[in-house]
Amino acid sequence: MTRKDALSPDAPDLVSEATAWLAQLETGKLSREDLAAFREWVQRSPRHYAEIRRLAELSREVNVLAGMADPLREAAKRQRIVRRGATSPRRAAPVLGWGALGLAATCALAFALFAGPPGIAPQAPEPIYLVTPVGETREVALEDGSKVKLNTDSRVEVAFAKGRRNVYLEKGEAFFEVAHDTARPFTVYAGDRSVTAVGTAFSVRWTDEELVVTVSEGRVAYGEAPLRTAKSSAPGSAEIMPAAAPSQPAARKMLGAGQRLEVSPLNRAELVERLPENVLSRELAWRSGFLDFQDAPLREVVSEMQRYTPQEIVILDEELADLRFGGVFRIGQTQAFFEALELSFGVDVEQTADNKLILKSVN
């Protein structure tokens, strides 16, 4: 039975919350959503983890949960798919007395299933998939304290494990605010390139046309990375398997705050430039939900706007494509862009029967 979570990770009555979870586990009547939510609760805060383990040590009678072993193992195998508007359920725990602590033993088996039996290394947690549809952005807090914000039509796989924090940008663009942890490097893979940072903030954009890395804070190291082999995946996203480590480490280069790297997929040429503060701000304006253009050729503006709408936008003539354009537009409101073209720039916007948008000069 699903309940809403009214308690924060720092709730003062953590003992009661943990005990209530044990009571629910002991009943054996948990849905898949309940099992996923219990796992999320344990991993949400180090205090939750510590309290579950402390209560487990109060008793060695773990056989009461023997019947739950298979369902919990099956739940652990399931990949967590994180989509807009669909996150792991959270729940509030009813306040129970200490008499319920006789149920504390029920967490021992559950803990063993998540962490593995003594003497055996725990398995790496299942990867998390983050997806955004066309025209939408979203921000997600990761378990290490880092944050990732996805731009339109993007998909990433988060695969954290002991000693490493790997993120695979399968397509689109994402901005990363990385929590400092020198013991676990934070590496973003995009195609055959990787970007590694410790305590910094940067964006990575990977499309069929280019790879772009923009650093807003700190420093990152980038270089070549082994390709990964694609195969069937979780529903709604393509799974990419981890690549084998290269026999020799690839040469690494450094990017500092305010620098941008562009890599052409055609000739592998790398261009590194330092961006003025106002340009950097416009480059990353999408994080705040806006697109900011200043004196940009219309072809470039349309190319960027195309990422935020499923409608194909076609510029009819080359002269119009060279038109210099400027303006600030909220993501998801592309109609304002076309209205600005018509009212201020003398551009005719025509929608065809097959749902294309044709831009042409009025004259």
Q: Strand fraction band?
A: 25-35%
The global form is globular
C-alpha Rg, in Å?
25 Å
CATH topology of the largest domain: Jelly Rolls
What is the percent of helical residues? 10-25%
Give the termini separation: 65 Å
Q: What is the average per-residue confidence, as pLDDT, rounded to a whole number?
A: 73
The run of helices and strands is HHHHEHEEEEEEEEEEEEEEEHEHEHEHEE
Number of continuous helical runs:
9
Instruction: State the domain count.
Output: 3
Secondary structure category: alpha+beta
What is the number of E strands? 21
**Major beta-sheet overview:** 14 strands, mixed
Low-confidence stretches: 1-12, 59-122, 229-249
CATH class descriptor of the largest domain: Mainly Beta
Architecture of the largest domain in CATH?
Answer: Sandwich
Structure in words:
With 363 residues, this protein is α+β, with helices and mostly antiparallel strands. Helix content is 24%, strand content 31%. It is built from nine helices and 21 strands. α2 packs across α4 (69-77) and α3 (46-56) crosses α5. It is globular. Mean pLDDT is 73; it is low at 1-12, 59-122 and 229-249.
